[in-house]
Design a protein that fits this description.
18 helices; Rossmann fold; four-stranded mixed sheet; six-stranded mixed sheet; alpha/beta
């Protein structure tokens, strides 16, 4: 769509041929191919292109070499390799392929498909993630953003120097903003106050004006971000409202790019497509293409509680009683956008805000893929449907955006705790789980030998040092060992002369994960007061025991 793939032959003086296959301006080399040894001596520079495609080019060599009609050749390669839109050119012997892209927009698409190995290990089948944050705007929305803009330009709906208007949860706005920078447009976006601050800040960073609107109003309310986006084109000359919800270029973008990529990357073996859905463009466009290839592919839409989409799918009824505020960003709707073709979808599954957030954090920690909120919702929905999967299934789950947009929300422990999402233990839980024990302390005037005896008696490694009612320092078994080993006579010294800094004091509800960051090599414990004012101590051993359960 953006840059047509190109295949070229470079003939050398000695009769050998070097083949260059260029897709989205990224070169792949098949070098030193001669008539006697066509199946060896080649190398690939672009690792994203599958070896199979290169070999297919290879085996087509005889047919290509013997023909002079490039249109026929283009059709042949198009039917067997990528698409029917291949262009062929012949370079001179000394010419080299261009090694750069014309703009950031040419990097959109061709995102990797990555196997999930840990969270889904108990499922009977293979699960692959289509990781869309490899797009330049870090989300899948880049695909339809550039498509909508190109269609608007082609139809004359926006003129050079004009203003792009859109209502966005952040990701579509980012895609449009990047395109605006490259093409010379201005952007004004409306969004809701439930979107992360990071999303709003990122839009402003690339030059967009952002109007934040209330979330908990009806779509028809003049204050809603839908209504604001619809009103702005009447007030701003030479502007166009993209309207990702009802603009069918949205789903066309995925029919033309996302669907073909998944089909090629799975070699046509995909059996299930799983997408957390909002505007309907991704699931309708991608699903339509894949079902045209294989009508037996199952398309599963994952929705969030508080959205009316599942009820509409199940009954055909737009039931506003289903609508209530939810926290998950970028998916679900309180109306049915025109991009939906429900006949493409085989089932809807709903996921709670909490389960989606926790799963996103798991993906980041257990798979090493730093994903956004909707990716957690998508995978959680799949896990809820695991009993419907079989051994030979090949599932593709869309991971829509990057986790950096949510560091102040789902990746913030305090935010998670405030919403009751965080099923992690706290300092209080660690104390409650062990038998109630009196806090052992030593006075700063006592001797080192007395402290060592207390450690032996109570089988402890860390002791707070007190001066009357105040804690002024600490002793650790490791620290004392080093001092006594260096100077055995130190055992008669007062504790005050050898003590270490006092242990930090935290709140009683501090999460275990945060305690782990406070306990270091030089600081072996943390302390907190309970509701009655009594001090308690937690050590590295306590934290390890908690996390191991």
């Amino acid at each position: 769509m953006i840059c047509m793939p190109t295949f070229a032959q470079v003939t050398s003086a000695v009769g050998a041929s070097a083949f260059i296959f260029i897709k989205n301006s990224l070169p792949v080399y098949l070098s030193h191919v001669n008539e006697d040894n066509r199946e060896s001596n080649f190398f690939i520079r672009n690792k994203n292109l599958k070896r199979k495609i290169c070999l297919d080019l290879f085996f087509c060599f005889k047919r290509w070499y013997s023909k002079s009609n490039y249109d026929t050749i283009g059709y042949y390669f198009g039917k067997t390799i990528l698409s029917s839109h291949l262009h062929f050119i012949t370079f001179g012997t000394n010419k080299k392929p261009v090694m750069w892209l014309n703009s950031i927009l040419e990097t959109i698409g061709n995102t990797p498909l990555i196997k999930l190995n840990n969270i889904t290990k108990d499922l009977p089948c293979t699960v692959l993630a289509k990781v869309e944050y490899f797009n330049p705007g870090n989300s899948i929305k880049d695909r339809m953003a550039i498509k909508m803009l190109e269609v608007a330009e082609k139809e004359g709906k926006i003129k050079p120097g004009g203003t792009i208007i859109e209502g966005t949860s952040g990701n579509t706005g980012m895609g449009l903003a990047l395109a605006a920078v490259v093409k010379g447009y201005k952007c004004v976006f409306s969004t809701t106050d439930k979107q992360s601050k990071e999303k709003v800040d990122i839009l402003k960073a690339v030059g967009a004006e952002v109007i934040v609107c209330p979330t908990n109003v009806e779509p028809e309310d003049p204050q809603s971000y839908y209504s604001v986006a619809k009103r702005l084109p009447k007030e701003i000359p030479n502007s166009f409202y993209m309207n990702q919800y009802d603009n069918l270029a949205n789903r066309d973008a995925h029919y033309e790019t996302t669907g073909p990529e998944i089909w090629e990357q799975t070699e046509g073996k995909i059996t299930h497509l799983v997408i957390a859905t909002g505007t309907g463009g991704t699931i309708t466009g991608t699903g339509k293409y894949l079902k045209e290839k294989n009508k037996n592919i199952k398309v599963w839409a994952i929705d969030v509680y508080g959205s009316l989409l599942k009820k509409y799918f199940d009954t055909g009824e737009v039931d506003t009683n289903e609508v209530h505020p939810y926290i998950t960003e970028g998916i679900g709707e309180d109306f049915v956008p025109a991009n939906y073709d429900m006949s493409i979808i085989d089932r809807f599954e709903q996921v709670t805000d909490k389960d989606g957030a926790i799963m996103a954090r798991r993906i980041s920690r257990e798979e090493g893929i730093f994903v956004g909120y909707s990716a957690g919702t998508s995978l959680q929905g799949l896990m809820q449907l695991k009993d419907e999967l079989k051994k030979d299934d090949l599932v593709v789950v869309i991971f829509g955006d990057h986790g950096s947009r949510y560091v102040g929300k789902i990746y913030n422990d305090q935010w998670m705790m405030e919403r009751g999402f965080f099923d992690v233990k706290t300092f209080k839980d660690l104390i409650s789980a062990r038998q109630s024990k009196r806090l052992v302390t030593v006075e700063s005037t006592q001797t080192v030998a007395e402290a060592v005896e207390l450690m032996r008696k109570y089988d402890i490694e860390h002791i707070p040092v007190a001066d009357g009612e105040n804690l002024i320092g600490a002793l650790s078994e490791g620290g004392l060992f080093q001092k006594i080993f260096s100077n055995p006579e130190i055992k008669t010294s007062t504790i005050k002369s050898v003590m270490e800094p006092a242990y930090p004091v935290v709140s009683f509800d501090t999460p275990v994960e945060r305690l782990g960051g406070l306990i270091t090599k030089g600081n072996g414990a943390v302390m907190a007061k309970d509701e009655s004012g009594n001090l308690h101590i937690v050590t590295k051993y306590d934290v390890i025991q908690s996390l191991a359960k």
